[in-house]
Specification:
four-stranded antiparallel β-sheet, globular, 17 helices, alpha/beta, single chain
């Protein structure tokens, strides 16, 4: 998920001003000198000596703390509270539970609850598959995190992960009419996480794993796929991989190359990097070199993580060794899921003709687009303030809409490939250019195309458990 850095925002500062020690003009001057612009002034309290102001200030988000420090440093002035548009939007949380049926009288009550509900419960007891038709299970997804790898913030814990998981639930609902619930678990023990999810699974039609650190995320996902009969999808891995592949399908068209013929260098062999590599291998790419802190991963070497050993055994066919700068010579494609500034303009110059660079580290990519302007042919990042944003939101709403509608038991590799092709197909041939290889997350075609592609492949792969409903919509998508 992209994190904007240094964007303009409005903040509201509540100040207590001692009129005998400081004037309002001094406050205005101090705010202006720190880079802020006052948009509105509201008086929220007054006395003979004191004034309390609510100041709405437009400021670069990086300068908020500087303005607060400046205000606190003025004699006769006290900062009571600071809020901004983002904080205000999160007050009380961003989602709620709403009833589909209004209880208007005692008869309604007896039908939705006791005694009438007992008959529904017994029907499910006698035939558990009826849970899909008689409960919310048919349309619910658990968005599960332990808070160990949240955005670019690291291990901030389950409480701090809640706003992110709520936001994801909002996107599920608005884009695909999926009812998603944030489940933030207060443990980072692999077995406890697996057991907790297994115990809550009956209430859900799918599990979306989110922001769980590597390498534990591999074992958690693998075990849950094996032990549950509903789809489990770690979005940080596979959502990134699906959208990356969609972008590459269109990028190679622009440079006149076949993806299967391209040589790829990937930097950052973590959860997302491993999933990106696996989907590229499934798409027919054979020449991939992964680079991490040891340099290029090469089979035959011993590594700290089992995932790295697997990676080395399945990639780097020509056994290249050395640093990123060493192995990137002649590469057609660079994929970055690592960190800020690891790629240089000189590295890109050493790539093959018409290089493709997907620098997806957040909040700051491996190289900024302006550093390679005129050198790179197609550039993509994970950020919304540059063209060609590789954003998981293009994948997970439509994918889960599809697996829920056909009641798939799992998400197969072929379903991910189908989703990638569907996303790529939204960009029409006459629209395709270096700055437009991937559709907007607000393009209304994306969810439906991904949904249909995923359902088609689920039926072909024999993992769909509902009768073939591809000829009609199960749930009308929101307008």
């Amino acid at each position: 998920m992209a994190v904007n850095v240094g964007s303009s925002t409005n903040i509201i500062i509540r100040l207590e001003m001692d009129k005998q020690q400081i004037t309002f003009g001094q406050i205005i001057t101090a705010i202006g000198e720190t880079g802020g612009e006052i948009l509105a002034v509201d008086v929220s309290g007054t006395s003979k000596q004191m004034m309390i102001y609510d100041l709405t200030i437009c400021v670069n988000s990086n300068l908020t703390s500087s303005i607060v420090t400046q205000m606190n440093g003025l004699e006769g002035l006290k900062v009571i509270n600071v809020s901004d548009q983002t904080m205000l939007m999160h007050l009380g949380g961003k989602i709620e539970v709403a009833s589909k049926i209004r209880i208007k009288n005692r008869d309604d009550l007896s039908r939705v609850y006791t005694p009438g509900v007992a008959r529904v419960s017994m029907a499910i007891h006698e035939d558990p598959s009826k849970a899909y038709s008689l409960t919310i299970k048919r349309n619910t997804v658990a968005v599960v995190s332990d808070g160990s790898a949240v955005l670019g913030l690291g291990n901030i814990g389950p409480l701090a992960a809640m706003p992110v998981m709520e936001g994801k639930a909002m996107l599920f609902k608005q884009l695909a009419d999926v009812d998603a619930f944030p489940i933030c678990i207060n443990t980072q023990d692999t077995e406890e996480i697996i057991e907790t999810i297994k115990r809550i699974a009956p209430a859900f039609g799918g599990i979306n794993l989110e922001d769980i650190s590597s390498p534990r995320c591999f074992e958690i996902e693998r075990r849950l796929i094996e032990e549950l009969d509903i789809p489990v999808f770690h979005d940080d891995q596979h959502g990134t991989a699906v959208v990356l592949l969609a972008g590459l399908y269109n990028a190679v068209k622009l440079v006149g190359k076949r993806l299967s013929d391209c040589s790829v260098v990937l930097c950052g062999v973590g959860a997302a990097g491993s999933a990106c590599t696996k989907i590229l291998l499934s798409a027919g790419v054979t020449n991939i070199v992964g680079v991490d802190r040891y340099g290029a991963l090469v089979r035959g070497q011993q590594y700290d993580y089992e995932a790295w050993t697997w990676y080395a055994e399945h990639t780097n066919p020509y056994l290249k060794t050395g640093s990123l700068s060493d192995v990137i010579h002649g590469a057609d494609i660079f994929i970055g899921v690592s960190g800020e500034g690891v790629l240089t303009a000189a590295d890109v110059r050493n790539m093959a003709k018409d290089p493709i660079v997907f620098a997806m580290a957040n909040p700051t990519p491996e190289i900024l687009p302006e550093e390679v302007e005129g050198i790179v042919k197609v550039m993509a990042t994970g950020r919304s303030d540059y063209p060609n944003q590789i954003n998981n939101v293009l994948c997970f709403p439509g994918l889960f809409r599809g697996v829920l509608d056909c009641r798939a038991s799992r998400v197969t590799e072929s379903m991910k490939l189908a989703a990638a092709k569907a996303i790529a197909s939204v960009v029409k041939e006459h629209e395709l250019n270096e700055n437009f290889i991937i559709p907007s997350i607000f393009n209304q075609e994306v969810v439906e195309k991904v949904r249909k592609a995923v359902m088609d492949e689920a039926y072909e792969s024999n993992v769909a458990r509902r009768r073939d409903l591809r000829t009609r919509e199960v749930y009308p998508l929101p307008t």
